[in-house]
Amino acid sequence: MDVIKTVVEHYNHWIIIFLLVSGLYIVVARGNMVKKLVGLGLFQTSVYLLYITPGKILGGTPPIIAEQYSVYSNPLPHVLILTAIVVGVATLATGLALVVRINEAFGTIEEDEIFAGEEDE
Amino acid sequence: MIAANLPALQVVLPLLGAVVCAMVRRGPLAWGVALVVSLAMPLIAVGLLIQVLDGSTISYALGGWRPPIGIEYRIDIVNAFILLLVSIIGAVIMPYAKASVEAEIAPDRQPWFYALFLLCLSGLLGMAITGDAFNIFVFMEISSLATYALIAMGQDRRALLAAYQYLIMGTIGATFYVIGVGLIYTVTGTLNLADMASKVGEIENSRAIIAALAFLTVGISLKLALFPLHVWLPNAYAYAPSMVTCFLAATATKVAVYLLLRYVFSIFGKVFVFADLPLPEIFLVLSLAAMFGASIVAVFQEDIKRMLAYSSVAQIGYITLGIAIANKLGLTGGIVHLFNHALMKGALFMALGAVFYRVGSVKIDDLAGLGQRMPITMGALVLAGLSIIGVPGTVGFISKWYLGLGALEHGWWWLVFLLVLSSLISVVYIGRIVEAVYFRPVSSAAKRATEPPLSMLLPTLLLVASTVYFGIDTAASAGIAGRAAELLLAGLR
Fold first, then answer.
1. A105, B22, B320, B410: most buried, per Cβ within 10 A?
2. Is A49 on the interface with B (CB under 8 A)?
3. How far is A26 from chain B (nearest CA, A)?
């Protein structure tokens, strides 16, 4: 029973691990360049959760000093992840811009078709 | 006022310069701005290095928030050395860039090109200077995102694929890095590197710390192109514009090596990483695989930029070999090779950029007979090539000498033998270039080639001269590297 209890109590970690692994799997297994970027986004999202879940305290309020509240969540992970989200958006934008250019230059965004075309040259 | 704020200026100047470049919208003007900023960088770096040369550290509280709460810029000999290296390469490349960029980049994109270059420079300098783990990630992404765009500006359409591939691999690497930092943060509650080092020691055998070390090592190894995580590198170097290849080959992987040194030695500590975990064995095997595997692949390349890119992977093997040896002499060899490799690869890619400027190709067959048409450039190429081989009197020899001494201190005489053997493989690929350039009839592509303009020739010759100078007078390079190695081995605790 203890095992089940530990597993259930750490459900947030299971979500993180699931997102992390499925994101990485998509990046590796898919040949479509947009799908790869979606996988990359999923992978990065798992890290957002990794930072935020330990920073949140159940029943805690935002860190504002007021008499009636004494328990509050750690604001630092939230701020860090705001930065990481911005970085993630920038990465996704750069990646998509590259995919657009690749589509213009090669006429496809499927990796196997591009590599097959390159070998013919 | 200026002296007290040097650490901030080192990062802020290129950042502001990038904005100015993007606003002026005219290629030559943007180049002027980038030139002024790049030339100011080594002055600042020297100013910082002089202050820490006695073994002290500079702690700069950004925005007046005191560490460990605020972001701290923390400079000691190790990162002052890296700052100097990156900024010198930036300053040497910038005068060279004008002719090369005008030939390879469309006029309307040139200001953006210089803006991206300065962003990349500021990211790399920021990664080296900051003492905050999360701040390193932010700077890493600033430099990486700029790099992806810079590579995509290459003329060949395959540059786009190379940039995309690097984006995927680079982002995975950076995300692994953040996971590692996150794990450390949850158990220590701090992001300040010095503070982290003092707290990690108490809980070093916990599973979270070991997992963090694993994530950090893999993430950073992706960035520094440790074999077998190097697959992004050859294409990125081969298809990027000439000037970008020079800059990346000389600086980007070096800063990642610095991060690895910082985490392995200063934060986790030599005893924990090297006595309790099998990290030295892993690094030893991977370094040897890089030295031999990548060198052998390099021998069979037709495109010389690609050949030298594979050679870079091999040379990174020598640097990580220094980390695996992990005594003072070996580590000195690794750090001094970091410096030396930047000089010689910078020089080689600059000479190749000059070839591309005149011939329009860097295929080995198109270089045939070029020794008669561009004698000075080819002389520079061969001298820097000798340095890759490690001929005595060049910088390459100095690094291998220290690595060999470090290996002998462990009694690993077989490693010395392997060092020599791997150098022999580089004789083969450098020999292929020499053979084509001097002993073949002039190719049709090379017929009309002449020496490149002085603005390209002089920086190339400067770097080549430095590979010979630091091969003879090692007081500055190996001396500082030795002190940096001492400091790293002593740890931050």
1. B320
2. no
3. 12
CATH code at A48?
1.10.287.3510
Closest residue, chain B, to A37 (C-alpha)? B168
Nearest alpha-carbon partner for B67 in B133, B116, B128, B125: B133
Residue B243, token pair as written in the block: 């000037």
How far, in Å, CA of B465 to CA of B395, rounded? Answer: 10
Q: Under an 8 A CB cutoff, do A102 and B168 touch?
A: no
Distance linking the first and last C-alpha atoms of chain B: 32
Per-domain residue ranges for chain B? 278-493
Closest alpha carbon to B236 in B342, B114, B148, B123: B148
When divided into structural domains, chain A yields a total of 1
Q: A40 and B178 in contact by Cβ < 8 A?
A: no
Helices (H), B25-157: 27-52, 77-104, 110-129, 133-152
CA distances from B348 to A18, B284, B307, B312, B450 (A): 46, 27, 11, 11, 18
Q: Which residue has the tokens 């500006």?
A: B153
ipTM at complex level: 0.93
pLDDT tens across B152-183, in order? 998 888 899 999 999 999 999 999 999 999 99
In this prediction the pTM is 0.92
CA distance B138 to B191: 13
Question: Which tokens is B181 given?
Answer: 């930092």
pLDDT tens per residue across span B353-396: 988 888 888 888 888 888 888 888 888 989 999 988 888 888 88
Angle at the Cα of B153 from the Cα atoms of B462 and B13, rounded to 5 degrees:
60
What Å distances lie between residue B246 and B22, B344, B348, B456, CA to CA? Answer: 22, 10, 8, 12
Q: Which residues contact A17 (CB under 8 A, 6 or more apart)?
A: A46
Exposed e or buried b for every residue in B154-168, given b needs 16+ CB within 10 A?
bbeebbbbbbbbbbb
Average pLDDT over chain B reads 88
Of B141, B168, B175, the CB nearest to A47: B175
How many residues in chain A?
121
Residues of B with CB under 8 A from a CB of A: 134, 137-138, 141, 145, 148-149, 152, 157-158, 160-161, 163-164, 167-168, 171-172, 175, 178-179, 182-183, 185-186, 191
